[in-house]
TrEMBL record:
Domain of life of the source: Bacteria
Organism for this UniProt entry: Georgenia wutianyii
Protein name: DUF3090 domain-containing protein
The organism's taxonomic lineage, starting at the top: Bacteria, Bacillati, Actinomycetota, Actinomycetes, Micrococcales
InterPro entries hit by this protein: DUF3090 (IPR021441)
Length: 183
């Protein structure tokens, strides 16, 4: 079975952004090099976890004795991308599993994403697509810090949390449910 690997080495742009209103947003990881643009859908939780793991990996590199790589402790402001997603946003696939690694030969973080695997409802066997796909993106450490910071901002830009119950509040209103301490 052929495998299509969408590779972005030193991309011009790598961002996580959303389409839709808070509460009904779809998250996308989008990479662009020149005219090559690829968008993959992922969950809010995957986005948050990716940002967290990037920072953890960079912090580990900073703390490693004899580290020969210059890893910034903070995101370089000039690298933080505040623009929306490039248009059109055409979902290539929905991310199932993501991986994060470090390539010391290029001093880059490597982000890998593969599609979610669907299962046949009757047999419970995985449905194998005709063409398997993967996304592989390599970014330098400064870009990685900036990517993680933007991602945290995008994730946090959702619905505000209710001060009473902590659940997300919709613009139309919010029902906390029982307030007698049973919740």
């Amino acid at each position: 079975m052929p495998v299509t690997v969408h590779t972005f080495d030193w991309p011009d742009r790598l961002v996580i952004g959303t389409v839709g209103q808070p509460g009904a947003r779809t998250f996308y990881l989008q990479a662009r090099t020149g005219s090559q643009l690829l968008s993959v859908a992922l969950e809010k939780e995957q986005s948050a976890a990716l940002a967290e793991k990037i920072d953890e990996l960079l912090d580990e590199l900073m703390a490693t004795d004899g580290n020969r790589f210059s890893v910034p402790a903070e995101a370089p402001q000039e690298l933080i991308d505040t623009e929306g997603l490039d248009q059109p946003v055409a979902e290539q696939f929905r991310v199932g599993v993501m991986g994060l690694g470090w390539d010391p030969s290029t001093a880059q973080l490597v982000i890998e994403a593969v599609p979610i695997q669907t299962v046949d409802a009757e047999t419970l066997e995985p449905v194998v697509p005709e063409v398997e796909e993967a996304l592989v993106v390599r970014i330098p450490v400064g870009t990685a810090r900036a990517f993680a910071e933007r991602t945290r901002e995008v994730v946090a830009a959702g619905r505000p949390a209710c001060p009473r119950c902590g659940e997300p509040m919709d613009p139309e209103g919010h029902d906390c449910g029982p307030t007698d301490g049973l919740r």
